[in-house]
Amino acid sequence: MRVLQVGNNFLAYIMMIGIYSAFHFTTLEEYYVGTLYLPIGNGVSDGSGAIIFFSAMTCFKGNNFWATPWFDATWMNIEGVTVLTYG
């Protein structure tokens, strides 16, 4: 979360829950089925590919790319969030 500069807010928690749930449910499937079957498109390997891609993009563009304002977020009424950025 430090790489994306999202801070400690509600949107960051939602993003992390989505990432962790892919690993969690794959582990549950392995426990109940007895084997780890990962199809071609799955959350675990595709998520790793996305993390590698975004880390490389941060390497070439710099951290400030993720802090670029995207649109106004005052309508969401989340304390401390006024604009949404790419990260």
Note the topology.
Blueprint (H helix, E strand, L loop, with lengths): L9 H24 L9 H19 L7 E4 L10 E3 L2
Antiparallel strand pairs: 1-2
Notes on the structure:
By secondary structure, this protein is mainly alpha-helical. It has one domain. It is built from two helices and two strands. The longest helix is centred in the first third of the chain and has 24 residues. It is flat and about 45 Å long. The model has no long low-confidence stretch (mean pLDDT 77).
Brief overview:
The protein has 87 residues and is mainly α. Helix content is 49%, strand content 8%.
What would the average pLDDT be, to the nearest integer?
A: 77
Parts with pLDDT < 50 across at least 5 consecutive residues: none
Q: What separation lies between the terminal Cα atoms?
A: 9 Å
Structural class: mainly alpha
Order of helices and strands: HHEE
Helix content: 40-55%
The coarse silhouette is flat
* Cα Rg: 16 Å
Read across the widest sheet, the strand sequence of neighbours is: 1-2
Overall tally of domains: 1
Sheet bearing the most strands, described? 2 strands, antiparallel
Strand content: 5-15%
The number of distinct helices, counting runs of at least 4 residues, comes to: 2
Number of strands: 2
Note the main attributes of this structure.
87 residues, two-stranded antiparallel ribbon, flat
